[in-house]
Design goal:
It is found in: Cytoplasm. This is Acetate kinase. One of its GO terms (molecular function) is kinase activity. Pathway: Metabolic intermediate biosynthesis; acetyl-CoA biosynthesis; acetyl-CoA from acetate: step 1/2. The chain is α/β, with parallel strands linked by helices. The protein has 15 helices and 14 strands. It folds into two domains: about 140 residues, ATPase, nucleotide binding domain (Nucleotidyltransferase, domain 5); about 180 residues, 2-Layer Sandwich (Nucleotidyltransferase, domain 5), CATH 3.30.420. A hairpin with a 2-residue loop joins strand 4 and strand 5. Helix 7 packs across helix 8, helix 10 packs across helix 11 and helix 11 crosses helix 13. The longest helix is centred in the C-terminal third of the chain and has 25 residues. Bound molecules: adenosine-5'-diphosphate (ADP).
Length: about 400
C-alpha cells in the first residue's frame, strides 16, 4: 500500500510517498513559499529532481499541486492509490498518548493545543485540513512529536514551578522530535540485539534534542514545554537563567515575547558566532581559526556532554550513544568534541570510523559505551503508524 507522510509548516508542505510495509521511499518533495507569487514546487522521482516556480495561494492549492504532480510524473496513476496520509503534529500535550486517526474532534484538539505551540500546530492543522478536503475518503493519521516522551515520570517532566501552573496551564516538559528519538533508539536496540538497554539519542539538526531511553521507553529529554529548552542549537539558545528574559526586555526596551523570539531565532550557533546558523559554516570558520565559531561548537558540546552525564546517572548506566539528524550524522568534528568530554565514562571513538557516514558503530573496541551513527527516518515512523491505525 502507498502511504503519504506529510510535514506541513506555515508556508511549506514536505511530503514523502512510501510503499508499505516495505518502507521503501517512492518519491519525496516540497512545496515552499506558500502564499507567494513565486512559490516553489519540487518533486524527486527516479533519481531526477523537478522544480517549478509558480503562484501558490494557500495550502489547499499546494496539496492539489502535489497530487497532480504525482500523476503527471507517473508516480501513481490515480489519487485513490494513496491509502493513508500521516501528518506530523508537533504538540500533542498530555491528551495524545499514541498516534491517532484524525476526526473532527481530533483536529479541533490539535488546533486547541496550538496555544502551546503557536509556531507549529496551526500550520500542521492547515496541512491536515487541506489533505482531508482533497482526499476525504482516505484515512488521515496524526503522529505527534510529543508521544514518545509521554512515558517520562513526574520527577522528570515537572518543573520547580508552582504545581498549579501544571494542573491549570499544562506547564511541564513535553519534549519534541519524538518520532526521531523512537526510530533511532529502536534501531539501536536492533543493532545491539536486545531491548534491555540504556540509550541516549542525540538528535542534532538545526533544532536539536537529546533523549534518554531505558528498555525502549523514554525517561528523559532535553526539550521542554517548547523546543527552546535544552542546549544551544542553530538559532536557539537552549536553557538559560529564566530571569534573563525580564532583564534583557528592560535593557533593550522590548517585550518578553521579543526576547523569546531572539532566544529562538537569533541565538545558538548564529548568536554566538555572529556568522551563521549552519554547522558547515561554523566548521569552515573553525578551520580558519575563528574563535567565536569554535565557541559555538564548544558551548554546545559541553552542554550535550553534561546532559549525557546526567542521563547516565538517571538511567543508572549507559549502553549506547546514538548520533542522528543533519549535524549528528554528518559532523565528525562535533561528535569528537562531545565524546572527548565523556572520557571519564570510558567512552571512546574510533577516529577512522568517526570520519565515515551512514549507519555504523563508531566507538573503539575498548570503549565501555557503544557509539553509533544512525540516520533518522521520521517519515518511516509516520508511515508505520498510519498503516497500523488505518487498518484497525
Ligand atoms: P532540521 O531538520 O532541524 O532543519 P537537519 O537535521 O536537516 O535540521 O540539520 C541541518 C543541519 O545539518 C545544518 O546545520 C547543516 O549545516 C547540517 N549539516 C548538513 N550536512 C552537513 C555536513 N556534511 N557537515 C556538517 N553539517 C552538516
Amino acid at each position: 500500500m502507498k502511504i503519504m507522510a506529510v510535514n506541513a509548516g506555515s508556508s511549506s508542505i514536505k511530503f514523502q510517498l512510501l510503499e508499505m510495509p516495505a518502507e521503501k521511499q517512492i518519491t519525496s518533495g516540497i512545496v515552499e513559499r506558500i502564499g507567494s507569487e513565486e512559490a516553489l514546487f519540487t518533486i524527486k522521482y527516479n533519481g531526477e529532481k523537478f522544480v517549478e516556480t509558480l503562484p501558490i495561494k494557500d495550502h489547499g492549492v499546494g496539496v492539489q499541486l502535489i497530487l497532480e504532480g504525482l500523476i503527471k510524473h507517473n508516480v501513481i496513476s490515480n489519487i485513490n492509490d494513496i491509502e493513508g496520509v500521516g501528518h506530523r503534529v508537533v504538540q500533542g500535550g498530555e491528551f495524545f498518548k499514541d498516534s491517532t486517526i484524525i476526526t473532527d474532534e481530533v483536529l479541533q484538539k490539535i488546533i486547541d493545543l496550538g496555544e502551546m505551540a503557536p509556531l507549529h500546530n496551526p500550520a500542521n492543522a492547515t496541512g491536515i485540513k487541506a489533505f482531508r478536503q482533497v482526499l476525504p475518503h482516505v484515512p488521515q493519521v496524526a503522529v505527534f512529536d510529543t508521544v514518545f516522551h509521554q512515558t517520562m515520570t513526574k520527577d522528570a517532566y515537572l518543573y520547580g514551578t508552582p504545581y498549579e501552573w501544571y494542573t491549570q496551564y499544562g506547564i511541564r516538559k513535553y519534549g519534541f522530535h519524538g518520532t526521531s528519538h523512537q526510530y533511532v533508539s529502536e534501531r539501536a536496540n536492533q543493532l545491539m540485539g536486545t531491548t534491555q538497554t540504556k540509550v541516549v539519542v542525540c538528535h542534532i539538526g538545526n533544532g536539536a534534542s537529546l533523549s534518554a531511553v531505558k528498555n525502549g521507553h523514554c525517561v528523559e529529554t532535553s526539550m521542554g514545554f517548547t523546543p527552546l529548552e535544552g542546549f544551544p542549537m542553530g538559532t536557539r539558545s537552549g536553557s538559560i537563567d529564566p530571569a534573563i528574559t525580564a532583564y534583557m526586555a528592560n535593557k533593550l526596551n522590548k517585550s518578553a515575547q521579543d526576547i523569546t523570539d531572539i532566544l529562538n531565532k537569533k541565538s545558538g550557533y548564529l548568536g554566538i558566532s555572529g556568522l551563521s546558523n549552519d554547522a558547515r559554516d561554523i566548521e569552515a570558520a573553525i578551520e580558519k581559526g575563528n574563535e567565536r565559531a569554535r565557541l559555538a561548537f564548544d558551548i554546545q558540546a559541553k552542554q550535550i556532554a553534561d546532559y549525557i552525564g546526567s542521563y547516565y546517572v538517571y538511567m543508572g548506566g549507559l549502553d549506547a550513544i546514538c548520533f542522528t539528524a543533519g549535524i549528528g550524522e554528518n559532523s565528525p568534528v562535533l561528535r569528537q568534541m562531545i565524546i572527548d568530554r565523556l572520557a571519564v565514562l570510558g567512552v571512546e571513538l574510533n577516529k577512522d570510523l568517526n570520519k565515515l557516514r551512514g549507519e555504523r558503530l563508531i566507538s573503539s573496541e575498548s570503549s565501555k559505551v557503544k557509539v553509533f551513527i544512525i540516520p533518522t527516518d521520521e517519515e518511516v515512523m509516520i508511515a508505520r503508524d498510519t498503516m497500523r491505525l488505518s487498518h484497525e
